[in-house]
Amino acid sequence: MFLSALSALFYLSSIYVAAGASCACSSVTIPVRVDTLVPKDVTDIYGGLKSNASSLRPVNATYDVYGVFCRPDSYFFLGVLQLLVHGFTYDSQYWSPPVEEFRNYSYAAYSCDRGLSSLAIDWVGVGLSSRPANSSDVQFLSCASAVSQVARYVKTNSIVPGLLPFEKVIGIGHSAGSGLLNFGAITEGAQSPFAGLILTGELIVQSGEIPPLSAAPPARDVDPLRWGALDPGYITSLAGTRSAFYPPNATSFSPRMLQFDEFTKDVGTVGAYYQILSNSLATNYTGPVAKVIGSEDQLFCVGTGRCANVTALTAAERVVWPKAQRFEVVVSQGSGHCMNLDFFANGPFNTFVHYVKQFTGIPL
């Protein structure tokens, strides 16, 4: 009970930080219906996209997706919503962490200041969204379906009383959240509800780049008090390992942010852990796509030479987006994997806003 109350307190703090003088934020819960087939084997790296019918099983359920909706108090661009999707073992607080230190780590607040509304959601199985008792129900097929259903919901329903539905939704993901948006683009192609995608902290993953599952043990073993009732398929990061999500230079981020990150980490599932590899498959998505990666991303860039030549990197990443209206890659100098959480955050934030406006026709 204590930890549940503490978790809720952090969510309220997150809302408060985003809700500065220029921004009004509120918690929302959106019901979504997921009716799909998922792999019986959760370690299927392609999430069922290459499976035959006999190796799939149905997931048919209604879930409540929790989110924090923020819109500018004064002027804002009508009809445009940013749907923000966090990464693995994070939750919606990633987009507006309540750690300030005279710096702005909140993308919700930053984009509000520039006239853009946002909805930061928790994955199904994470945070304050519905958490299925069976972790094997939480896979890329089911979670991507839920995210797309949220996008469709806000295009046909008022998210808060008195507000018209949104005409255009831009998906912005971080890390595995980018992978989730990528997966949805693979399954839905030209039928995707997203007018554009901004994928951060994510490049095509090769099989050798996935750490062993021992790096993400059952959450109930890591913190029995908080997660002792969960089945072992719900996993989280080992204590002391989250520094890998920051630049290797420790002066590039606040130690208080790293402490907050560790203290508020959430869970993922074994299925989602393995299925990030599905982003190596081509998609028929036809909208514009931008990828933003930090030059100091220890998962993809540091020590690999992969991010040194942006032209070559763009060509390599473009291969799996053959029908995208446009495709660009930006390497954000100084930023780590969790680019929202280090001292260079405003650089990527400015890039996100630029692409949101460009993809939706808002004057730059």
UniProtKB/TrEMBL annotation:
Keywords: Signal. Transmembrane segments: none annotated. It comes from the Eukaryota. InterPro entries: AB_hydrolase_1 (IPR000073), AB_hydrolase_fold (IPR029058). Residues 83-341 form the AB hydrolase-1 domain. The keyword Signal applies. Residues 1-20 form the signal peptide. The keyword Cell inner membrane does not apply. This is AB hydrolase-1 domain-containing protein. It comes from Mycena albidolilacea.
